[in-house]
Give the backbone structure.
Amino acid sequence: MAIAILSQGPESLTAKLQMEGLADCQQLADVISQCIKTPIAIALSGTLGAGKTQWTRFFAMALGAPSESISSPTFMLVHEYPCEPKVYHLDAYRIGDEDEMLELGIEEMFESDSITIVEWADRFPSILPRNTLKLHFEVCELEFARVVELSATGNRAKAVWNEVLARIIPAMSFEGS
């Protein structure tokens, strides 16, 4: 993995991470799961097939959810995973407007002692809470390679990113340089 800090201010932190494959995706999910503090939202964005659901699978598994219970909530809209802390997984791809999103009870999910992961969160940015971790996945030319732009808003989310970066940077391998 390679990382670059793009900007850091009093209210936000943005970095880009180059992932070479699924192992890097799982490592990122594992590290974030170790640093997470609830309540918090994780907003995922990127094209179809960019890795949003795969990252969520690794993340929920790291928190103890059985892999067979984790799938894209495209048709169900919301899944709740049996792990600690509780994870709500929403897919906003098929949701028509903010009112429909609010009818799902997303505000209650954001306020509960849980992690609320929203795929396609870029469709409804105004409903995201102050403390939100954002991961934007970009597909690269190499199969399974991704660039993930990581950003955080709010003090709790920014503290999580700072801890994630502190753990990832020392663990990075520079072999072959």
